[in-house]
Target: Thiamine-monophosphate kinase
Amino acid sequence: MTDRPDLTSSTDSLPQTLPDEFSFIRRHFRRLAGKDALDLTDDAAVFTPPSGKELVIAADAMVEGVHFLPDDPPDTIGRKLLRTNLSDMAAMGANPFAWLLTLACPKADSRYNDAWFEAFSDGLAEDQALFGVSLLGGDTTSTRGPLVLSLTILGDVSPGQALRRNGAQEGDGLWVTGTIGDGALGLLALQDKVADPTGWLTERYRLPRPRLGLDLSGIAHAAMDVSDGLVQDTGHLARESELGARLNVDSVPLSDAARSVVTDNDGLALCLTGGDDYELLLAVPDDQTSALLARCRAQKIAVTRIGEFVSDQAGVQVLRHDGSLFPLRHQGWSHF
Amino acid sequence: MTDRPDLTSSTDSLPQTLPDEFSFIRRHFRRLAGKDALDLTDDAAVFTPPSGKELVIAADAMVEGVHFLPDDPPDTIGRKLLRTNLSDMAAMGANPFAWLLTLACPKADSRYNDAWFEAFSDGLAEDQALFGVSLLGGDTTSTRGPLVLSLTILGDVSPGQALRRNGAQEGDGLWVTGTIGDGALGLLALQDKVADPTGWLTERYRLPRPRLGLDLSGIAHAAMDVSDGLVQDTGHLARESELGARLNVDSVPLSDAARSVVTDNDGLALCLTGGDDYELLLAVPDDQTSALLARCRAQKIAVTRIGEFVSDQAGVQVLRHDGSLFPLRHQGWSHF
Model:
């Protein structure tokens, strides 16, 4: 996010006006910049990594019309992207501290005006304070297509303590935080396909809640966040650990708002495969159950055992309590 | 760049096919992944920062039709983005070691097929080897707009040795590496507006040459890379240092290829303002001139004194050798 001035004609050596890109960054992003960002005026940011830690880094992109709706409130759009990245940090057991943002902005689209970006930046400022991170840098450019945002997140973790996907062991319980399906139902609510009188589902679609701070090293054998559908992501965790998983559909935690609109198997299947949950999926040995429950209680985060990892099958079996198979047409969402 | 499998129906617990996104990442990007990237299978990468160093981080985006042409060879497009980011590392005096990539791919555009991404990845593999960096992670998604790429680069620098933009002092020489204007003329050559019989200009547009490895700490007071036009970027360096600059247009180094097509003031003005140079712009006190020349000679990089920093004016004065003002309508390029 480099200031790029188009100062003035050389026949007049006094700077007169700031160019669009320069003033845009100054207006909307400089206030988010941490001390290491060098006021966003240099080619890069410089920081001293936390002593005695490993660093954890991830990048995610969001595209208008794919990951958010064109008429979503602008203050939630940047926060959603930041929170999905923070959820990746939570999945690794990392402590996030900084982020970078690039944006390709549709210049011909008058919605993306100064007021829009002021609200966008307001939302990010609020979440920066909430999650203790600061902006390090980035880039702005124009596009003839939809708004594309890309965010890189940086965190730290004690050496060897990062949670991985490949550590689940046979017999581990399959656990999930929070509730599942709200995000997918929230998208339907915004499309007027389901009722959402309290706004809970809509808010869960727009503002994921990254499950940071649980400190599950030594408790969970493996972890990831649920972004592309509970069943698909369970399959991923199992496959990376060279195991299978059995998932008890009747144990999957649904919010009250979800229960009030999920009236049949199709609705339940949507919750299991819709994605946009950003809850943590965990492999936890049974002798760590009480430790898991204590950590989650301390952070006021619900956690539910929804199945177990097995070695007698590959893939994911989704079962009802009576042992019958639950019908699913697909397991989740592919962004590509 | 997370693998996201859409494995199979739950009524059949054996994984059968990999989803598009999963296999796409496996086919084209896993071979670029460094050891810290966890094979691109986790939510994030984990690495140990180099001991006793500061880290330097930057992100830049490139959009089809803005920063590259839709029919540019795919192997050069990723390399151009990587090299522009490496140029940011060079400007900071940093040693790059890793990068992350997000891409928003136009799914409806049949040009962006497997063969295209294989060539794209081939180019990146070549440059990874050339510059000693490796892929740490990223994300893939689809878009209804043009291809948008965003790259984050990570490097290290000895504590306190990062070059900044704000350190120029009155009387410092203004120096530039390599030659100026080739990139802007290369774009014109690709549009059949100027001749480029040797292909030099075209190659310079497509493949910038990041000026890494010069080790100018203690020699240069300030540095940045020239991306948006020599005059504009000189103005930026001067302004951040609270100085002005005088730039001697007749000293600006042009390649033989550029000289053969620059026949008037308009052509020269294009070189001074066109951008896409990715050369280093340096503020160097005269008592460090011989050290600068020695470092550049050792790396076989040309360097030329093109002006000086002054305190008796703000902005940039662009002068001919006879002291007359050189006519410029604007100073550079705003991407936004």
